[in-house]
Amino acid sequence: MQNKLRIIGGEWRSRVISFDDDPDLRPTPARVRETLFNWLQEDIAGSHCLDLFSGSGALGFEAASRGAKKVTLVENNPKACLKLRANVELLKATQVQVVSGDVLRYLASDAETYDLVFLDPPFAHNCTVEVCHLLEDKGWLKPHTKIYVETPASLILKGLPKNWQVLRHKTAGEVGYHLLAHKSNS
C-alpha cells in the first residue's frame, strides 16, 4: 500500500489514510506506532496532542482515534497539508486541526499547553534539540507532558532541557524512538 497507512487502534482502527508522495515524508512505521501507543495507553484519552512535522499525520490521527480530545497537526509542506485536511474530512475528525506553516515559527508564537507532543522532524533538518528547547522555553508543555521524539537510530539525544527525563527508548531499523517526560520546575 504505497502512500497509505492503516490506523492501528481506537475508533478508526483499520481505516486507511493516504499521504502525499514525497521522498521527505517518512511515516512512523506501524510497529513503532503500536509500541508507542502501548506506552501511552493511559495518557491518550481526553488529552491535547501536538504533532509537529506531522507529514502523513500518522501519530496525530492515531491519537485522535484512541480518544485524544484535541490534536493539532503542524506541517509546512502545502501538499501534505492538503492530504491531512482530506483525511480530517474522510474520518470526520472534528478534534483534529491542521496548521500549515513552519514549526519553528509556530513554536515562537503564542503558546498553548499540551499533554502529549509528537516530534518527528525530517532527519536531515537536524533541529530536534532546538525544537525541544522551544517547547520548554516558550511554555508549550504542561507539568507532566510526555514527548515522543523520533530520530535516526545513530543519533544520541544530547542537550535536551534539564528537566526532561527519558522514560523509554528503542530502535527499529534506521529509526530511534524516545519517550520523554517534562517535569515541572515548580
Description:
This protein is of the alpha/beta class. The chain has helices at 30-39, 58-65, 78-91, 103-108, 128-137, and strands at residues 4-6, 16-18, 48-52, 70-75, 96-100, 114-119, 141-152, 164-172, 175-182. The chain has a seven-stranded mixed sheet, with helices on both faces. It has a two-stranded antiparallel sheet with strand order 1-2. It is globular. The N and C termini lie far apart (48 Å). The mean pLDDT is 92.
Shape category: globular
CATH architecture verdict = 3-Layer(aba) Sandwich
| Helix content percent band | 25-40%
CATH superfamily: Vaccinia Virus protein VP39
Q: Count the strands?
A: 9
Element string (H = helix, E = strand): EEHEHEHEHEHEEE
CATH first level: which class? Alpha Beta
Low-pLDDT segments, ≥5 res: none
Q: Under CATH, the topology is which?
A: Rossmann fold
- Spatial order of the strands in the main sheet? 5-4-3-6-7-9-8
Mean pLDDT: 92
Q: How many domains, as an integer?
A: 1
Count of runs of 4 or more consecutive helical residues:
5
Strand content: 25-35%
Task: Give the distance, in angstroms, between the N- and C-terminal Cα atoms.
Answer: 48 Å
Specify the biggest β-sheet.
7 strands, mixed
Rg, alpha carbons? 15 Å
Strand-pairing-aware structural class? alpha/beta
